[in-house]
Amino acid sequence: MRDRLFTDASVAVLYDALCAGRQDFDFYLPLVMSAGSVLDVGCGTGELLCRARQAGHQGRLCGLDPADAMLEQAYAKTQAYAKTQAYGQARAYATGHAHAKAGSGQTAIEWVLGDLSAVSWEREFDLAVMTGNAFQEFVADDALRVALAAIRSALVDGGRFAFETRNPAARAWEEWTAEHAVEVLDATGAVVRVAHDVETPCDGDTVHFTTTFTSPDWDRPQASRSTVRFRGAVEVASFLAGAGLVVEEQYGGWLRQPLTDTSPDIITIARRR
Ligand SMILES: C[S@@+](CC[C@H](N)C(=O)[O-])C[C@H]1O[C@@H](n2cnc3c(N)ncnc32)[C@H](O)[C@@H]1O
């Protein structure tokens, strides 16, 4: 489940640049801002919660991720921001799965290293989010069931869970090719080329791919093998129902377009029953 994309510091440091121009936060940020307490599952570099705090969110913000290199980026952001603001920080991940609320009361962001099998929150959050297609990291059915059950437990009665997953019918993996490689700058300003290569045969259900990072300024390329699971809307709703979460809203795009067969994403807001 954990690949070098997220656990290697030299690669994780590129993540935010690779996500430049993302539209999903225009959808998620208002949800976060209107919720008193928020859990971000698979928070990665913590960008969403950091933006929420900077936008004035006053309540509890907690980011959970098993990848230390990604969480290190999140922590660095809160540290940098703390230097300019009266702003708390947490370094819960330094001690593994333990989580702590350090910093100045409700201005702290909790960063928790681990996954949902390592936590036991009970009715603590008004909203849980899972952004950046982190939902697709749950490849095995049992892993997804465990995760959804833990998310339901973490939500207060009537709490909401918002997430997206790529629509398998849109076949996004067909564009994960060398022709669609992108270039970003690393921390030293070196140009890094990032290219995907999908393993064949590809059944469009469980997709294995390699991401290769190359730079003229690096000694050698870096490569990471990943696996993601594609699930359609009916399957998603079925897993949610099995976990005691009912689909309340579903969209096919970040501007809340209706979900169709060709929508790129399946964006769901579910509520704890
Ligand atoms: C594509 S990144 C998305 C990060 C962030 N949510 C965003 O929107 O930018 C996927 C994240 O899911 C995390 N992840 C992988 N397996 C996970 C699990 N079992 N539980 C929680 N997070 C997981 C990875 O470490 C990675 O940070």
TrEMBL record:
InterPro entries: Methyltransf_12, SAM-dependent_MTases_sf. GO terms for biological process: methylation. Keywords: Methyltransferase, S-adenosyl-L-methionine, Transferase. It comes from the Bacteria. Residues 39-161 form the Methyltransferase type domain. Pfam families: Methyltransf_12. GO terms for molecular function: methyltransferase activity. This is SAM-dependent methyltransferase. It comes from Streptomyces zagrosensis. The lineage of its organism: Bacteria, Bacillati, Actinomycetota, Actinomycetes, Kitasatosporales.
